[in-house]
Amino acid sequence: MQTETTYADGIRAGVPFAVAALLVGISFGVVAQPVMGAGAAIAMSVFVFAGAAQFGSTAVLASGGSVLTAILAGVMLNARFLPMGIAVARALRGGPLARALQGQAIVDASWAAAHLGGGRFDRKILIGATIPQYPAWVLGTVIGALGANKLGDPKALGLDAVFPAFFLGLLLEEALASRVARVVAVTGALIALALTPFLPAGLPILIASAAALLGWRRA
Amino acid sequence: MNAAWTLIVVLALATAVIKGAGPAAVGGRDLPPRVLRVIALFAPALLSALIVVETFGGPGRSLIVDARAAGLAVAAVVLVTTESLIGAVVGAAAATALLRLIA
């Protein structure tokens, strides 16, 4: 018999991620505040709670893209939660609605921490690890959004470089996983660069997502 | 202002549905493997597209190389050597800010 894990184990596993979520949350607040205002930036972290999608869709708005483009970019960035949710599904308890609610705990770090190997997942680690990350993400956003004016010009602080650095970190985790992921990443980058001079902001990024179709044939 | 709130409401609902769909629907039933592969590959495709557009995107539809590129290079070095996401984010901002200060 394997020892039973507890929510406390999950919370302990989530604490380092919560520290990271606090700092990234502060940078989200700082960059989002001039784009949508402090209230909206905080509300976004409270209700959306998905770093890449929040940064990505905010970046689309900031660069002059339409709401529809921003929504699509956010949805595409969150599309990975679909296969992640399918992967953890068998570890969750209760009926469809209960399982869907438990699925809200899925964030990258918790999902990875809950992976036991061989496609098996620990439900209490998944949920427990998200418990400290959520308030940290919201608190970070509040600090960043309300302190944004005191922090000065975001560009002088190099905060516009925060987006790409954050995405690169997430990308390396994805891309190191498989060769096809690396091919898709390079293809996506090339499509986006090639189309940028010709299309409105946001569209090159959306069209670049078609690079994922390379997965249709290749394992 | 309206644009941002529309984005928040729709994205919040969409995210909840995306996160909940897999757990709710899968009770032994699986999507075809190639569909799952394509879905899983949206993240690398979009992330790399976002990286290049936000690093090299200039005014209008131009492409430029500026201090952000140096920030991205620093982030790459930090990620490869320490695997610290926070270190990479802070390093990228610091390098970009420093370069703008002395340039």
Overview of the structural elements:
The complex is a heterodimer of chains A (219) and B (103). With 219 residues, chain A is mostly helical. Helix content of chain A is 68%, strand content 2%. The longest helix of chain A has 30 residues, at 7-36. In chain A, 57% of the residues are buried. Chain B has 103 residues and is mainly α. Chain B has a domain at 65-103. Chain B is 80% helix and 0% strand. Chain B has four helices and no strands. Chain B has helices spanning 2-25, 33-56, 67-82, 85-102. The longest helix of chain B has 24 residues, at 2-25. Chains A and B meet through helix 1, helix 2, helix 3, helix 4 and helix 5 of A and helix 1, helix 2, helix 3 and helix 4 of B.
SSE diagram, text form:
The complex is a heterodimer of chains A (219) and B (103).
Chain A: H1 7-36, H2 38-47, H3 51-62, H4 67-78, H5 81-88, H6 96-103, H7 108-114, E1 115-117, E2 120-121, H8 123-147, H9 162-175, H10 179-195, H11 203-208
Antiparallel strand pairs in A: 1-2
Helix pairs in contact in A: 1-2, 1-3, 1-7, 1-8, 2-8, 3-4, 3-9, 7-8
Chain B: H1 2-25, H2 33-56, H3 67-82, H4 85-102
Helix pairs in contact in B: 3-4
Concise summary:
The complex is a heterodimer of chains A (219) and B (103). Chain A is mainly α. Chain A contains 11 helices and 2 strands, in the order H-H-H-H-H-H-H-E-E-H-H-H-H.
